[in-house]
Amino acid sequence: MTRVKICGLTRIIDVEAAIDLGAHAVGFVMEPSSPRCVAGDERLMEAVRILGPYVVRVSVFGEYQPGSPEFDRVQSWSPLFLSRDDAVTVVRPGLGLEEQLSMMTSHSHQVRAVVVDGYSPGQAGGTGLRPPDDFVERVATAGPWKLVLAGGLTPDNVAERVRRHRPYAVDVSSGVESSPGVKDPAMMRDFIAAVVAG
């Protein structure tokens, strides 16, 4: 079964809705340049720390920021991050694929999963842009890591994307929002249902 991560959460009401609807993981952006950054929201961070034990909490970085809140998993595209044993790294088109794959291959025993995301210059994720299918396949087959598919996913297209790529997990942010950082419960419900159907 393909797992679902709802990312870019900024409100505890949305976190609780995502969990109640069946999300396997919830993501919190620590990248300062993102409109979804919650690194300084101590009230939200405390609420996240005491969530139940059966949901994975993910701290999401662009460039890894030591000292920011870290939860069960940490996700980043920073090359320095690959030295960690729990690395969930991000690969995006337009940033030198062969160089990215070379770095990951040299740390393949530490890279547990790779998030393949869309890319827009100056945006740290949440772009709503879909990575090309051949790019996804190249990353998926380049190493032993698990594929996490992100970028441009919505309730309307995620089932087709799951059938095409058979990812370990899908990661959605802007595709289930009414505005940046504000999740729509009906869209989250429909997204998760579409993943299950896919």
Key terms:
198 residues, alpha/beta, TIM Barrel, eight-stranded parallel beta barrel, 10 strands, 29% helix, two-stranded antiparallel ribbon
What would you say this structure looks like, in words?
Strand 2, helix 2 and strand 3 form a beta-alpha-beta unit. The strands form two sheets. An eight-stranded parallel β-barrel has the order 1-2-3-4-5-6-7-8, surrounded by five helices. The chain has a two-stranded antiparallel ribbon with strand order 9-10. The protein has helices at residues 12-21, 42-49, 97-106, 133-140, 158-165, 185-197, and strands at residues 3-6, 25-29, 56-60, 73-76, 87-91, 111-116, 146-150, 169-172, 177-179, 182-183. The model has no long low-confidence stretch (mean pLDDT 89). It is an alpha/beta fold and 198 residues long.
